[in-house]
C-alpha cells in the first residue's frame, strides 16, 4: 500500500498543485516624479507540489523536483507615471500573468533564491492605473 501511494504521488502529484494567476497591486514611483502609480495586475502565486530530497538515493533525479509557481504565458504592459519632468523617462513596464504552471524557476524574469525585501506602498500622492 505504501509503495503504491508513493508511486501515485510521484506520478500524479502535479494535479494537487494550486498555482494560478492572482490579483496583485504594484506601487511604482520615481524620485523625480510627483506621483506614485498603483498598478493592478496579475502574478503567478500558489502552492506547487515538491518532492523531498531526503530519498535522493532511492529515486531517479527527475522524481526529485523543487518546483515553484511560475509564468506559463505572460505579456508585458507599459504604464505612464504621472507628474514626471521632461528629462525623465516616465514609463514603467510590468508583467501580466495570463496562465501559470509549476516548474523550475527561470532566472530570466524571477528571483529564484529568495524573496526580495521591498516596500509595496507609496510615499508620494497615489494615482491608480487599471489596465
TrEMBL record:
Residues 1-17 form the signal peptide. Gene3D superfamilies: Cystine-knot cytokines. Transmembrane segments: none annotated. The keyword Signal applies. Keywords: Disulfide bond, Glycoprotein, Hormone, Secreted, Signal. PROSITE patterns: GLYCO_HORMONE_BETA_1 (PS00261), GLYCO_HORMONE_BETA_2 (PS00689). Belongs to the glycoprotein hormones subunit beta family. This is Thyrotropin subunit beta. It comes from Zosterops hypoxanthus. The lineage of its organism: Eukaryota, Metazoa, Chordata, Craniata, Vertebrata.
Amino acid at each position: 500500500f505504501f509503495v503504491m501511494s508513493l508511486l501515485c504521488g510521484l506520478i500524479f502529484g502535479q494535479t494537487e498543485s494550486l498555482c494560478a494567476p492572482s490579483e496583485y497591486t504594484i506601487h511604482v514611483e520615481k524620485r523625480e516624479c510627483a506621483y506614485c502609480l498603483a498598478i493592478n495586475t496579475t502574478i503567478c502565486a500558489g502552492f506547487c507540489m515538491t518532492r523531498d530530497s531526503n530519498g535522493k538515493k532511492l529515486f531517479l533525479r527527475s522524481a526529485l523536483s523543487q518546483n515553484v509557481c511560475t509564468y506559463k504565458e505572460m505579456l508585458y504592459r507599459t504604464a505612464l507615471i504621472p507628474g514626471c519632468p521632461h528629462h525623465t523617462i516616465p514609463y514603467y513596464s510590468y508583467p501580466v500573468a495570463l496562465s501559470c504552471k509549476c516548474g523550475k524557476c527561470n532566472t530570466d524574469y524571477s528571483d529564484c533564491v529568495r524573496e526580495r525585501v521591498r516596500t509595496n506602498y507609496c510615499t508620494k500622492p497615489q494615482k491608480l492605473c487599471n489596465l
